[in-house]
Amino acid sequence: MRNSIKIIMLFFFSIIAVGCKKEEKSPSYHKGEMTIFTDESFKSVTEALAEGYMINYPETKIKVVTKKEDLGFIDLLNDKARIVVMSRDLTPEEIKTYEERVDLKFLPAKFAADAVVFVVPKDSPKESISMEEIEQGMQSDDKKFIFDGTNSSNLNFVAQKLKKQAKDLKFSIIPGNKNIIEELTKYPDKIGVIGLNTFSRPYDKESEALRNMVKILPVEYKGKQYNTDYENLRKMNYPFTRVLYFLTNEGNFNIANGFIRYSCTQLGQMIVQKEGLQPYNIYRREVQMR
User: Fold this and answer.
1) Which of 3, 109, 228, 279 has a C-alpha 20 to 30 A away from that of 102?
2) 273 and 183 share a domain?
3) Apex CA 136: angle with CA 135 and CA 141, to 5°?
4) What is the pTM of this model?
5) What distance in Å separates the CA atoms of residue 247 and residue 84, rounded to the nearest whole number?
6) Beta strand ranges found along the chain (DSSP E)
7) Do both 130 and 69 map to the same domain?
8) Closest CA to 186 of 124, 129, 127, 136
9) Domain count for the chain
10) What is the DSSP string of 102-162?
11) What residue spans of 103-254 are helical by DSSP H?
């Protein structure tokens, strides 16, 4: 009799244990840990969104790790990351590889309009730059343009806009967007190429200090000059406007997809706007009073 009771109790507790294990493994967007890989050029907006998500869901812990855009994408394919931030368009071959490796449809979650900008020291006599000058300069042995490295989002995006392969372009390197700004005065004949989000935060002291060291050159395109104000980013008139988007290999509604949804809602888009970037999913509304 006792043996029968023991068997029944063991069976009962085993069912409870299995149930607990299933509960632990069930998807959850509001608790758990996750790492996001992002290029340094848009690390600021990624960190701001991560902080907002953790405030809303205190049981989550999100770590933002800086990694070159192409390398982050490779890590996503190899299941070393659950979510990455991208800016350039993937090639048809890359999209095919993503869908085969991840077993998901390619659905980029677009959340902000950023830009690649061309900067010179504040006291430089240069006031603008043309698309022709950029294209010619990227083919010159003078290596007039300074990027933050190979495999970076800035270089990838400029190459894509010029319809070139990054490996075929000629340029100088100073690692880090911030370092380019701080060291640009040493190279008065050079032009720095950085991500707008490096110093786009309007009320941030560090961003303000960096902005005061350089001036952003308007880009001349088809007879007109375009700067990086909200209107030109929203309408994508500025030739080097880029749309930031998330990619994930998470097939269920866990923390990665929860974070993506949050970033694309009004609350997340308000954070994007506070970062000085153009929200992708909401636009500034103007109301006329009569």
Assistant:
1) 279
2) no
3) 120
4) 0.86
5) 5
6) 32-38, 60-66, 83-86, 109-121, 129-130, 145-147, 172-173, 191-195, 214-216, 219-221, 224-226, 241-248, 278-279
7) no
8) 124
9) 2
10) H-S----EEEEEEEEEEEEETT-S---EEHHHHHHHTTSTT--EEES-TT-HHHHHHHHHT
11) 131-137, 153-161, 177-183, 205-211, 230-234
Domain check: are 127 and 50 in the same one?
no
Q: What domain range is 70 assigned to? A: 32-112+243-279
Tokens of 245: 């988007």
Q: What share of the chain is helix, strand, coil (3-state, %, to 5)?
A: 45, 20, 35
Domain assignment present for 64: yes
